[in-house]
Amino acid sequence: MEQQLFDDLVSSLKEAKKISHGESQPSRRFEVSSTDVKSLRERVGLSQSEFARLMRVSVKTLQNWEQHRRKPSGPAAALLTIVSKAPDVALKSLE
């Protein structure tokens, strides 16, 4: 490993340590909000089994999302966003 790259990594780790101990502020912060799956499902008027079938996931996975034990990721998160923004179009397309 090149010395400059190694020095940059060490510097980054020291900065991360200061941030985690509250000694420094991060240069930027990202907030990712998650969809409230249960309220979305209720808003579109589907049962858990119907919504799970629509999302192509098991009912157990849907229940984990609704009870915040798991968070949808990847394509499932994108699909939930589409359902929340344009439920009529999404429901027609997925049925």
UniProtKB/TrEMBL annotation:
Occurrences of domain HTH cro/C1-type (ranges): 37-94
This protein's record includes keyword Transcription: yes
UniProt keyword annotations, A-Z: DNA-binding, Transcription, Transcription regulation
GO molecular function: DNA binding
Annotated CDD domains: HTH_XRE (cd00093)
InterPro entries per the UniProt record, alphabetical: Cro/C1-type_HTH, HTH-type_reg/antitoxin, Lambda_DNA-bd_dom_sf, NadS-like
PANTHER family the record matches: ANTITOXIN HIGA-2, MERR FAMILY BACTERIAL REGULATORY PROTEIN
Name the record gives this protein: Transcriptional regulator, XRE family
Organism: Desulfonatronospira thiodismutans ASO3-1
Lineage of the species this protein comes from: Bacteria, Pseudomonadati, Thermodesulfobacteriota, Desulfovibrionia, Desulfovibrionales
